[in-house]
Amino acid sequence: MTDRDKKTPAPAAAGSDGSGSEPLLKVEGLVKHFPITKGVLKRKVGAVQAVDGLTFDVRPGETLGVVGESGCGKSTMGRLVTRLLEPTGGKVEFQGRDITHMSAGRLRPMRRDIQMIFQDPYGSLNPRHTVGGIVGTPFRLQGVKPEGGVKAEVQRLLELVGLNPEHYNRYPHEFSGGQRQRIGIARALALKPKLVVADEPVSALDVSIQAQVVNLLDDLQDELGLTYMIIAHDLSVIRHVSDRIAVMYLGKIVELADRNSLYEAPMHPYTTALMSAVPVPDPRRRGAKSERILLKGDVPSPISPPTGCRFHTRCWKATQVCKTTEPPLLQLKTGHQVACHHPENGEDQAPGDAPLVADVITVKSAGAAEPVAEPVAEPVAEPVAPAAEPIAEPVAEPVAEPVAEPVAPAAEPIAEPVAEPVAPVASDEPGGPDASPEAPGSVASEGPEKSAVPATDDEGDGSAAPSTGAEGKPKE
């Protein structure tokens, strides 16, 4: 962090508008549409608008970070800048030369000045080649003969990125993910480029390995004077390594500013939502409620993006002008550009416009206060009150009546069959004191023949036997 603090002021001054420094890379209106074909004749029926009108520049010695959701066109933009893809429209200039539609033969000498670190450390290395062959390939393709030989230079590069020079003859499958990414970095630095485009350099690595690779990139920039354009979706990594940050949404740059200005006072609502999702590793804030903006809905399809501002379908500040007019990327503060009609921390560009109430209710804030609590309390309280009446009436009436009626008649049929069979047994043998012991015996003897009577006595109550003895005594 100390190294970053020391070198931050210089790039910030160079990257501010109006400075005399000539940009190393300049992009104007960059467009890339991938055609959608159908049928045997490959008839074009549509296009995926991956990148649509990007304008920015990168100055020598600085690091430009590019963030955004998956599918917003970050990786496509990196491949267009390095001319791995042919642009559909726009203009790309490198050191004042237009390389937009430069042929492969004329572009080959410039490849040594523009290199790329790919996202996948597993797929970007040829498993059939050794590390020495992979890192030494740029020298062979460009016809460069380094001093001391290719092998000595490759071993020096391996040691520069933190690997053992003895790894020269090993294959990629013998290394871990972090070591493979270091091999990719060594290959990108082989020809001493001026611009390095790093596409998600740490996304496939563990957290501890991420810190090692990020610190390695910082050290190499200080040592070799490199210029970076780092593409990532981890806002914490971008904040650590970048001098300026561009925020992309659905193929467009919606905000471009220096690091401190963007993180302290974001102006675009989409940037504000992204910043609210960043966890803060502060133990003193444990248990404290933080405001989290939840965007409803999915990102629109790049095949048919919305008209006007592309974020208006999910924006809580959208108005009618956002639906019809696309906002340009304007500088509202020094070194802070934003494409929004209603910026968060700036002057409203379209005051008094009617909001899109019927079309957009897209954000829910966990820490919202009065404006959010009032509209939620009114619609919930009204439907709950009438719901209590229909529930109380049907439950009280049917339960009380059917339970009370069947219980009362149940007592009568049990008393009658028990009294009738006991009376004739007592009348046949009026024998004084011997009648009471025989009466239960006689009833028990009839039990197997008349199975219904003892079954009801046993199941109903255990008091049936004493009741027969009580009836026999008064008859004596």
UniProtKB/TrEMBL annotation:
Residues 9-22, 403-426 have a biased composition (Low complexity). The keyword Chaperone does not apply. Pfam families: ABC_tran, oligo_HPY. GO terms for molecular function: ATP binding. Residues 1-22, 403-476 are annotated as: Disordered. Keywords: ATP-binding, Nucleotide-binding, Transport. Residues 25-275 form the ABC transporter domain. InterPro entries: AAA+_ATPase (IPR003593), ABC_transp_ATP-bind (IPR050319), ABC_transporter-like_ATP-bd (IPR003439), ABC_transporter-like_CS (IPR017871), Oligopep_ABC_C (IPR013563), P-loop_NTPase (IPR027417). Belongs to the ABC transporter superfamily. This is Dipeptide ABC transporter ATP-binding protein. The lineage of its organism: Bacteria, Bacillati, Actinomycetota, Actinomycetes, Kitasatosporales.
